[in-house]
């Protein structure tokens, strides 16, 4: 790619970033924002720009579906390299969840927690692909994920404890006069605690992924800007890619493990692994 071509792409990316910032949503240029800066009047491009997070989420789902289908078709008695990697991951993650919740409960909730981890991990890492975007760098995506976890936790609690048992848990499980006297204190505190959990989950994931994407974008644009001085691009962003991969993995793990903890808190003490 010639320096003139790189400079043109960089200028289009800068315009796309400025256009996004003018709408109050600063973001790193991606395929959709670049198309919007070039052909913003096109109805299809405008539609994709309005739903760009959902567009990249669908791409990720299609990619994961392709991986699963390929792994399923290539399964054999003698494991393939891909099959070995998938089995190692499942066994390691299963051991982590079972260790936190116990054998019975861990296996019960492993599909939900495991799916959550894989989906968030790929959404976090998707922004490292050139001209792609991490959907989790948008607060709408992380808020939707946190609300899903919140609803699933409440549903699991009511299903396992019953509605009366669920209320009893929120009231602090009063069993004596002092306990009942403290109900007016414990009940609102527990309700606020449950409502704060999705806010904490969404803001933590959003802030970390947006921060790493901005850091990568700044380093990348600085490297491209070196063209005017050294007549060659400098990959200043390259060291930050490994940091972003580590951060993305940790944040996906934290999100899914916190979901595991929230579920465990509602399990009966004789069944939960505390």
Q: How many β-strand stretches?
A: 0
DSSP helix fraction: over 70%
Give the overall shape.
Answer: globular
Order of helices and strands: HHHHHHHHHHH
Largest sheet: none
Strand content: under 5%
End-to-end distance: 58 Å
Number of domains: 2
Quickly give the structural class: mainly alpha
Uncertain segments: 16-26, 270-274
Please work out how many helical segments DSSP would assign: 11
Radius of gyration: 23 Å
Overall average residue pLDDT? 81
Short description:
The protein is mostly helical. The chain is 78% helix and 0% strand. It folds into two domains: 1-50, no CATH class; 67-264, no CATH class.
Question: How does this structure look, described?
Answer:
The protein contains eleven helices and no strands. With 274 residues, it is mostly helical. It folds into two domains: 1-50, no CATH class; 67-264, no CATH class. It is globular. It starts with a helix and ends in a 10-residue tail after the last helix.
């Amino acid at each position: 790619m010639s320096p003139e071509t790189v400079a043109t792409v960089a200028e289009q990316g800068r315009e796309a970033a400025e256009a996004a910032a003018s709408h109050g949503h600063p973001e790193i240029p991606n395929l959709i924002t670049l198309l919007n800066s070039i052909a913003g009047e096109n109805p299809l491009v405008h539609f994709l720009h309005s739903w760009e997070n959902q567009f990249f989420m669908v791409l990720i789902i299609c990619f994961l579906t392709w991986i699963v289908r390929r792994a399923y078709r290539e399964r054999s008695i003698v494991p393939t390299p891909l099959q070995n990697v998938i089995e190692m991951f499942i066994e390691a993650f299963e051991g982590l969840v079972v260790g936190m919740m116990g054998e019975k409960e861990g296996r019960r909730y492993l599909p939900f927690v495991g799916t959550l981890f894989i989906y968030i991990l790929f959404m976090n890492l998707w922004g490292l692909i050139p001209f792609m975007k991490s959907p989790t760098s948008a607060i709408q995506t992380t808020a939707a994920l946190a609300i899903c976890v919140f609803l699933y936790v409440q549903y699991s609690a009511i299903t396992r404890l019953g509605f009366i048992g669920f209320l009893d848990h929120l009231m602090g499980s009063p069993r004596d006069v002092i306990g009942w006297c403290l109900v007016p204190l414990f009940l609102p505190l527990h309700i606020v605690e449950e409502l704060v959990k999705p806010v904490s989950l969404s803001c933590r994931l959003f802030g970390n992924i947006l921060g790493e994407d901005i850091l990568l974008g700044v380093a990348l644009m600085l490297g491209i800007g070196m063209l005017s001085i050294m007549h060659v691009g400098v990959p200043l962003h390259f060291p930050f890619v490994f940091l972003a991969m580590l951060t993305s993995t940790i944040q996906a793990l934290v999100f899914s493990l916190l979901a595991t903890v929230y579920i465990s808190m509602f399990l009966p003490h004789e069944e939960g692994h505390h």
